[in-house]
From TrEMBL:
PANTHER family the record matches: ABC TRANSPORTER PERMEASE PROTEIN, DIACETYLCHITOBIOSE UPTAKE SYSTEM PERMEASE PROTEIN NGCF
Protein known as: Sugar ABC transporter permease
The keyword Cell membrane is annotated on this UniProt entry: yes
UniProt KW keywords: Cell membrane, Membrane, Transmembrane, Transmembrane helix, Transport
InterPro entries reported for this sequence: ABC_transporter_permease (IPR051393), MetI-like (IPR000515), MetI-like_sf (IPR035906)
PROSITE patterns the record matches: ABC_TM1 (PS50928)
TM region positions: 21-46, 88-111, 123-143, 163-182, 223-243, 278-297
Domain ABC transmembrane type-1 stretches: 85-296
Membrane topology of the entry: Multi-pass membrane protein
Locations listed in the record: Cell membrane
Pfam families: BPD_transp_1
Family of this protein: Belongs to the binding-protein-dependent transport system permease family.
Amino acid sequence: MTATLAPPAAARRPRLRAHAAPAGFLLPFLVPFTLFTLVPVGFAFWQSLHATRRSGGTFGRTESVFAGLDQYARVLSAPYFADSMLRVAAFAVVQIPVMLALATGLALLLDSAAARLRSFFRLVYFVPYGIPGVVAALMWAFLYDPRLSPIVHLLHSIGIDAAFLTPAGVLWSIGNVVTWTYTGYNMLVLYSALQAVPRDVCEAAKVDGAGQWAIALRIKLPMILPALVLTTVFSLIGTFQLFTEPQVFRQISTSVSSTFTPNLAAYSLTAGDRYGEAAAMSVLLASATFVLSFAFLRLTTRRQGRP
C-alpha cells in the first residue's frame, strides 16, 4: 500500500494564482450584477409568492401572507395582461424593423466613400439619444396635441385629418418617438461594426466592377450581421420595457390606459398596494423577454451555421 503525498505548498501557489486571476477580473462585474440584478429579481420572485391582506378597513393594518402561485393565476387570467403583451408584440414587429432599417441606411451612408462631414452627422444623429426620455416624450406630445401642435394645424389646413392621439394612432405615435430617440444609438453601433470591415475586400470588389450598392448588400451587410443581431436583441428587450412614453402620453390622451403596456400595468398595480400581483407580472414579463431574446439568438446563430 502506497501513501499519496500532498503537493508541497510551493507547488500549490501557482495553481492558486491561476484560479485567483480570473476571479479577480470577474469580481468588478459579479458584485454589481449580483447586487443590482440577481437580488432584485430574487426579491421580486419572493414577493410574487405573497399577497397583501388588510384588516380594519381602508386605513387598517396590512400584512404579507404566503399565497403560492395565486398571484400568477390572477395575472394570467386578467384581460389586461394578454392585451398589453399583444400590444407591445405588435409594436416590436413594426417598430424594430423600421428603426433598424433607418439605422443601417444611415450607417452605410456615413461609411460610403462619398460621405462628407462624418463627425458632424454622427453627432447630429446621436443627439436624440442624449435627450432624457421624459423630455423627448413631452416635446413630441406637444407636437401631437391638436390644441397646441403647429404640425396638426398645418396638416388640417391642407385637408389632412391628422389624429395622432386616437386609440388607433397613439401606439404608432409612441413608436415614432422611440424610433426618433434610438435610431442614432443603433446607427452608431452599426457604424462601429462597419469600421471593422476590411477595406481591401471592398477595394477588390471595386476592381471587379462592383458598385457601392453591391458592396453594401453583398459585403458590408453580411459582415455586420452580428451587430445587427445585437441591436435587435437590445431593441426587443427595450420594447417590452416600454414605460416612459406611454406614461407621459397618458397625461394628454385618454387613449392610453393605465394597463397600456405590461410595465405600465405593473406600475399601476403597485399604486393600488397590489405588490404581489405587480411582482408576478414583472417576473412573467422578464421571463417572456428572456425566452424571446434567447429564441431569436438561437434562430440567428443557426442560420449563420454556428452551433
